[in-house]
């Protein structure tokens, strides 16, 4: 009976150290997720949200720094 180590996924080819593509067949998914994340992070914060954050910061009592 073949035992599976904690790094082994059923049906997945074994990973090679120093492999050029560590995601293997999932590289396209990873690329799309990174692209989506980068676009999301670069978006501006809506004015209303920034105002609410400012109000929250002003309403909180000043806390001592450790």
Share in helix? 40-55%
Give the averaged pLDDT, no decimals.
74
End-to-end separation: 56 Å
Radius of gyration: 23 Å
Biggest sheet character: none
Unreliable runs: none
Secondary structural class:
mainly alpha
Question: Could you characterize what this model shows?
Answer:
- The chain has 66 residues and is mainly α.
- The chain has a domain at 27-57.
- Helices cover 44% and strands 0% of the residues.
- It contains two helices and no strands.
- It has helices spanning 27-42, 47-59.
- The protein is elongated and about 50 Å long.
- The relative contact order is 0.06.
- The mean pLDDT is 74.
Describe the secondary structure blueprint for this structure.
Layout: H1 27-42, H2 47-59
Short note summarizing the structure:
The protein has 66 residues and is mostly helical. The chain is built from two helices and no strands.
Give me some keywords for this one.
mainly alpha; 66 residues
